[in-house]
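Chain X:
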Amino acid sequence: MKKIKKIKIKLNGKLKVITENYKIQNLLSDFKVPIKKVAIELNQEILDKKKLNKIKLSNNDKIEIVHFIGGG
């Protein structure tokens, strides 16, 4: 039986432990993030929302999720 490897990431400055082969899309689903109302940054690069299901997270990745807030 294959052992599931854990990796550490930082999500909005907080340390999280996830399983290897975890994708950005999984993260957004698990945390119920409304994709249309956020910008997602991985290691200081803004991600294309069409590619979220293809991007796997690696150990020590830094993810920032920024919510858009309306106003005027």
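Chain Y:
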Amino acid sequence: MNTTYYPEDDILVIHLSDAEAVREVSHGWNLNISYAEDGAPCEIVILEAKEKGLYPIQTEQTAA
């Protein structure tokens, strides 16, 4: 998984896999999820990510 942020457009793209997207579904006006042929999500696109407080991404790591 990796992410790409486009600051000039405030768009965050989260790449979940290298699979080719065959279908894209809009989940509201600013969230699009792309799906691979097997039905697994492969990419998430969030519009106005920083404005909505979704970028920068904060992660936490805890010991198991």
